[in-house]
């Protein structure tokens, strides 16, 4: 009697476990928690420029084009094709059968609405400036859109992958208003919005009707954990599954933990020392090209990469990222040569060195304090005494930068706005009149403008090669390295970090 | 009595005004949130436009005046980043901080008061000396260090408690213990001296001479009278609690007002900072007021002489 | 507590304080390495008793290859001088305010009293953050911030004492005779307060050191590469899981120094101020 009862109970329990342990294959299941250090300010993709926001947005929304995760080239997404009809007109053919989470169909109207919304000055969208190349957007039919541009715009494929430029539902936005939409987003993406507790967590659930097929993970929670030590503790104790930013020195403790591993890959962000060659913020020895070359010889970039970054960085001889269009592999960086540096300094009239400011800022650069202080160490060895000036507040840093008050050497970094093209890094730092330019030359302006105006890839590469050789010769920068993104993943998941720093948790699967 | 309370309320208002003024001018001296709102590649024209739209280009006095008039209507302005009402943001996160500080206070008092009483009673004994050294040690220990150690031991090593975040009662334990440990040392020492002062009073000696049991002496007479300085201390401690809460909320990813205020200060989100700081100051002032009122109920002798304490 | 025990605590405290001051003053002579120069090839070496440690770096090195022992010795400079200077600033201002409030009474007293309430109500950390965010992090600004938030403690005590003295006959007599205010204060008010203030100041130094480390830990105090115990603690917090010595030793330094100062101050109080002018309510908790 008893035994059969026990067996019955066991069978029931077994059945329940069986039921629980796996719904039919292909159904989303389970819960993944991602740890981020900061939150986004709004769920409305058009109204912010934060990377965290972009990461969250592209789970809920889709863009017209997206990046291939292996080649980083723009590929079809909501738009099946983007073809040039004439130099100033592009025709987009849209995917059929796509619906927003609230049932509203995705059509050419949605595209026009999204474009108009961003371009509308009253909307005050912070990404408007990136889309002013567009003159007008016209609906041809339900699944065809035509975009007219003011001038030929070769970068349209790149810009349509822009994480902030997601397609939003016209009816929903018009009905509910912007304020509601910012807290209750509706998109076409692989996950639908569930709950957002600002500064604490965002919860999203799998969209089983997603046009690309339902994702493997049922629930994703983005948790905001500001303290790095806490993040790592959470990962090791199983509370969190993915970390966005792991300091290089913590890689070993995660790798040996047995519960998680590190996933690192090269990204677009480049780190470099910009020198005030023009004397925009006041005259310093940096206006002498020999001094700038000396500084290039003085800094041991390879050692920084090996020791401070654990080998997780790639040298950028001319400042642009090897992943970006325009990179010329034939260009060689300055050799580490402190003796030559001292000689150059003596030639330039500074046998005993001089004092200069080194500006750094908090945020995007991995291990910024350590890299900055390592640089200070190298410079002091050749007699250059460095006054460190650290900006804990990015806003203040940018204001000083743009206000022509950033004197001396600045350790700056640039993420290219996820555009894999050298124009994205060079134009804004070397073209006369741009806010971040502290080094100008007529030839540089010419080359940059030409490269921007033509669609001929061969010609553009030629121009950039010439440009790069020039800036290396003039030593305006100490080009250092291209950063890596270092993420950590629980061993339960198949997930890898991506070179454009956009975490595609929606593409992860269970092991 | 009513006059007294009114007087104190008026004082509270003055204090809040003073604080709002200080914060306002401090934050407006330097710092530019506009650049954080725009992508780094924005042109100078874009920056100027946004500044104008947000009203940040008006003279300081004008900005402060409009802040005041709005605040009186309950409108602290909108966060420069999320466009939410600053007041709403603060209210949203207030329960979390209250939960944390109350729990922290409970833990802190739970440790401090018994120990304070014991060491006062057993003055000079080993217990007393250990408590004193422990208190000094506790005061010298950085709060974040304790927090991270607790996480390492209980969450990572033994996996019995969650490492961070807010949710269940389990999530509250480590942060409350951390905050409580931050409060306890000083509170213990103050309790001890308060009790010592009281225990040397005549009426205690009288009670003892009359043969009243020690336990009754302690709790009925001594503690109740020592309660006065203790309650006063508690009011003062509230301000300290918020300082501890800043670090605790950061280490444990606790979604409270203190971490909101810190983030707002760092990003020059003026309206939120103004609102948070003034609000928190109001809370602290009210806590002090409550403490003082409670004291006057406990001891009518002090009622009128309080202001000149 | 027995007399002997009290004296022993005082002695222990005094020894620790003396050691810390020595470190601060004689740092260049005591420290085996340059605390500033990064030696990237010597990063993150553990203390001598751990595997991989060496006597060249007894307490290990930091992520930039700098000797931890040297940095801790130099860190004493920052902590001690910050603590002492902040107290001097706060004490000067606070005592002055207290004298003014107590002696003149009336409107002056009201204003100062309200000012004291404002400062005391303000959560120190938020004030510090806002102030330093506005002024920029530097040693000087930090002293100003610490001083500005620390003065009310003195004011309350001094004011109470001044009030008491003011009503005494000999002061009334002196005023009737036309003697100057400053003279009266100097001759009669200050001497009574001296002991109290000395004791308060010594305890406040410990509190200031902890606050300084708090600020530096948040990145708002002493800027790198200048070594400060709080800053080192802040830099070391990510490394607590892997390279424990980076946070442990600076923390220990803060702890021991503060402990020493507290023992010294308490002992001093037992000697100078046995009647305990300092009531619990008068001791401010930040």
Order of helices and strands of chain C: HHHHHHHHHHH
Strand content of chain C: under 5%
Mean pLDDT of chain C: 79
Number of helical elements of chain A: 15
The number of helical segments of chain C is 11
The residue-averaged pLDDT of chain A reads 88
Number of strands of chain C: 0
Broad shape of chain A: globular
Radius of gyration of chain A (Å): 26 Å
- Rg of chain C is 22 Å
Count every beta strand of chain A, where a strand is a DSSP E run of 2 or more residues. Answer: 19
**Major sheet summary line of chain C:** none
- Estimate the global geometry of chain C from the Cα principal axes: elongated
Largest sheet of chain A: 11 strands, mixed
Describe this entry's structure for a reader:
The complex is a heterotrimer of chains A (511), B (309) and C (286). Chain A has 511 residues and is α+β, with helices and mostly antiparallel strands. Chain A is 32% helix and 24% strand. Chain A has helices at 2-21, 51-60, 108-119, 156-159, 170-181, 228-236, 251-255, 289-298, 301-308, 338-347, 368-381, 394-402, 423-430, 442-453, 457-474; strands at residues 29-36, 65-67, 74-76, 79-86, 89-94, 134-141, 144-149, 191-197, 201-206, 217-224, 242-243, 260-275, 313-315, 355-361, 385-391, 409-414, 477-490, 493-494, 509-510. In chain A, strand 14 (355-361), helix 11 and strand 15 form a beta-alpha-beta unit. In chain A, helix 8 (289-298) packs antiparallel against helix 10 (338-347), helix 13 runs antiparallel to helix 14 (442-453) and helix 14 runs antiparallel to helix 15 (457-474). The longest helix of chain A has 20 residues, at 2-21. Chain B has 309 residues and is mostly helical. Helices cover 77% and strands 0% of the residues of chain B. In chain C, helix 9 (181-217) packs antiparallel against helix 11 (245-272) and helix 10 packs antiparallel against helix 11 (245-272). Chain C starts with a helix and ends in a 14-residue tail after the last helix. The chains are: A alpha+beta (511), B mainly alpha (309), C mainly alpha (286). Chains in contact: A-B, A-C, B-C. At the B-C interface, helix 1, helix 6, helix 7, helix 8 and helix 10 of B face helix 4, helix 5, helix 9 and helix 11 of C.
């Amino acid at each position: 009697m008893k035994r059969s009862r026990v067996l019955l109970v066991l069978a029931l329990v077994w059945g329940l476990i069986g039921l629980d342990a796996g719904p039919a294959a292909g159904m989303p299941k389970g819960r993944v928690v991602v740890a981020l250090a900061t939150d986004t300010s709004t769920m409305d993709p058009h109204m912010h420029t934060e990377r965290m926001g972009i990461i969250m947005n592209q789970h809920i929304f889709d863009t017209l084009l997206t990046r291939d995760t292996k080649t980083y080239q723009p590929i079809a997404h909501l738009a099946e094709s983007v073809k040039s009809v004439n130099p100033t007109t592009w025709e987009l053919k849209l995917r059929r059968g796509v619906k927003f989470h609230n049932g509203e169909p995705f059509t050419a109207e949605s595209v026009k609405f999204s474009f108009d919304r961003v371009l509308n000055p009253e909307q005050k969208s912070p990404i408007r400036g990136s889309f002013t190349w567009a003159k007008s957007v016209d609906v041809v039919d339900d699944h065809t859109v035509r975009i007219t541009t003011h001038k030929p715009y070769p970068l349209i494929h790149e810009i349509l992958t822009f994480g902030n430029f997601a397609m939003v539902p016209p009816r929903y936005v018009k009905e509910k208003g912007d304020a509601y939409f910012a807290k209750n987003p509706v998109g076409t993406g692989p996950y639908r919005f569930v709950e957002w507790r600002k500064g604490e967590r965002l919860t999203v659930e799998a969209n089983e009707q997603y046009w690309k097929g339902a994702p493997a993970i049922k629930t994703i929670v983005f948790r905001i954990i500001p303290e790095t030590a806490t993040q790592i503790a959470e990962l090791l104790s199983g509370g969190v599954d993915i970390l966005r930013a792991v300091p290089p020195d913590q890689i070993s403790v995660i790798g040996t933990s047995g519960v998680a591993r590190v996933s690192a890959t090269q990204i677009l962000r480049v780190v470099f020392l910009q020198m005030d060659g023009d004397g925009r913020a006041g005259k310093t020895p940096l206006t002498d090209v020999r001094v700038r070359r000396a500084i290039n010889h003085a800094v041991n970039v390879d050692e920084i990469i090996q020791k401070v970054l654990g080998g997780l960085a790639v040298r950028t001889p001319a400042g642009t990222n090897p992943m970006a269009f325009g990179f010329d592999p034939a260009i060689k960086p300055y050799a580490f040569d402190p003796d030559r540096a001292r000689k150059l300094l003596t030639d330039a009239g500074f046998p005993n060195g001089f004092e200069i400011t080194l500006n750094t800022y908090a945020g995007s650069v991995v291990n910024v304090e350590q890299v900055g202080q390592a640089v200070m160490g190298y410079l002091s060895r050749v007699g250059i005494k460095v006054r460190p000036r650290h900006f804990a507040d990015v806003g203040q840093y940018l204001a000083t930068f743009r206000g022509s008050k950033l004197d001396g050497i600045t350790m700056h970094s640039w993420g290219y706005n996820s555009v894999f093209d050298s124009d994205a890094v060079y134009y804004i730092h070397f073209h006369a009149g741009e806010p971040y330019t502290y080094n100008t030359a007529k030839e540089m302006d010419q080359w940059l403008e030409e490269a921007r105006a033509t669609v001929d890839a061969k010609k553009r590469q030629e121009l950039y090669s010439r440009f790069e050789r020039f800036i290396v010769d003039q030593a305006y920068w100490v080009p250092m390295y291209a950063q890596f993104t270092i993420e950590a993943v629980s061993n339960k998941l198949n997930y890898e970090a991506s070179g454009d720093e956009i975490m595609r948790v929606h593409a992860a699967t269970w092991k | 009595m009513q006059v007294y309370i009114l007087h104190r309320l008026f004082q509270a208002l003055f204090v809040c005004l003073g604080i709002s003024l200080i914060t306002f001018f401090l934050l407006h001296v330097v710092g530019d949130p506009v650049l954080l709102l725009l992508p780094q590649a924005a042109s100078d024209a874009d920056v100027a436009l946004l500044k104008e739209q947000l009203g940040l280009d008006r003279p300081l006095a004008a900005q402060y005046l409009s802040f005041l008039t709005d605040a009186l209507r309950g409108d602290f302005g909108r966060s420069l980043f999320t466009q939410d009402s600053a007041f709403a943001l603060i209210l949203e996160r207030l329960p979390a901080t209250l939960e944390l500080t109350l729990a922290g206070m409970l833990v802190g008092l739970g440790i401090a008061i018994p120990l304070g009483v014991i060491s006062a009673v057993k003055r000079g004994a080993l217990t007393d000396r250990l408590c004193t050294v422990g208190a000094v040690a506790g005061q010298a220990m950085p709060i974040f260090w304790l927090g991270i150690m607790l996480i390492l031991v209980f969450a990572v090593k033994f996996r019995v408690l969650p490492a961070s975040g807010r949710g269940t009662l389990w999530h509250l334990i480590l942060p409350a213990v951390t905050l409580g440990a931050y409060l306890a040392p000083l509170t213990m020492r103050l309790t001890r001296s308060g009790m010592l002062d009281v225990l040397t009073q005549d009426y205690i000696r009288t009670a003892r001479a009359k043969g009243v049991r020690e336990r009754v002496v302690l709790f009925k007479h001594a503690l109740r009278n020592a309660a006065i300085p203790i309650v006063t201390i508690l009011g003062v401690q509230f301000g300290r609690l918020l300082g501890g809460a800043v670090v605790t909320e950061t280490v444990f990813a606790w979604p409270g007002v203190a971490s909101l205020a810190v983030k707002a200060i760092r990003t020059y989100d003026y309206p939120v900072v103004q609102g948070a700081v003034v609000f928190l100051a109001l809370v602290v002032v009210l806590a002090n007021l409550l403490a003082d009122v409670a004291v006057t109920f406990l001891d009518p002798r002090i009622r009128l002489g309080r202001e000149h304490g | 507590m027995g007399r002997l025990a009290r004296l022993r605590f005082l002695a222990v405290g005094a020894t620790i304080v003396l050691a810390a001051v020595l470190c601060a003053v004689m740092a260049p002579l005591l420290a085996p390495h340059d605390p500033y120069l990064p030696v990237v090839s010597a990063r993150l070496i553990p203390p001598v008793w751990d595997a991989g440690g060496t006597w060249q770096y007894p307490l290990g090195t930091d992520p930039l290859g700098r000797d931890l022992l040297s940095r801790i010795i130099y860190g004493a400079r920052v902590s001690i001088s910050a603590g002492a200077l902040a107290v001097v600033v706060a004490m000067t201002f606070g005592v002055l305010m207290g004298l003014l409030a107590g002696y003149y009474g009336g409107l002056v007293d009201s204003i100062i009293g309200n000012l004291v309430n404002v400062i005391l109500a303000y959560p120190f950390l938020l004030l510090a953050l806002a102030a330093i965010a506005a002024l920029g992090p530097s040693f000087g600004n930090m002293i100003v911030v610490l001083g500005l938030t620390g003065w009310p403690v003195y004011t309350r005590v001094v004011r109470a004492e001044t009030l008491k003295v003011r009503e005494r006959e000999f002061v009334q007599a002196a005023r009737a005779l036309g003697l100057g205010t400053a003279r009266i204060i100097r001759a009669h008010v200050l001497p009574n307060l001296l002991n109290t203030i000395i004791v308060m100041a010594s305890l406040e130094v410990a509190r200031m050191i902890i606050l300084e480390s708090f600020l530096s830990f948040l990145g708002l105090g002493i800027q790198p590469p200048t070594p400060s115990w709080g800053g080192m603690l802040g830099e070391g917090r990510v490394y607590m899981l892997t390279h424990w010595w980076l946070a442990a030793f600076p923390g220990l330094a803060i702890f021991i120094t503060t402990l020493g100062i507290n023992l010294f101050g308490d002992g001093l109080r037992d000697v100078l101020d046995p009647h305990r002018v300092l009531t619990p309510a008068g001791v401010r908790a930040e």
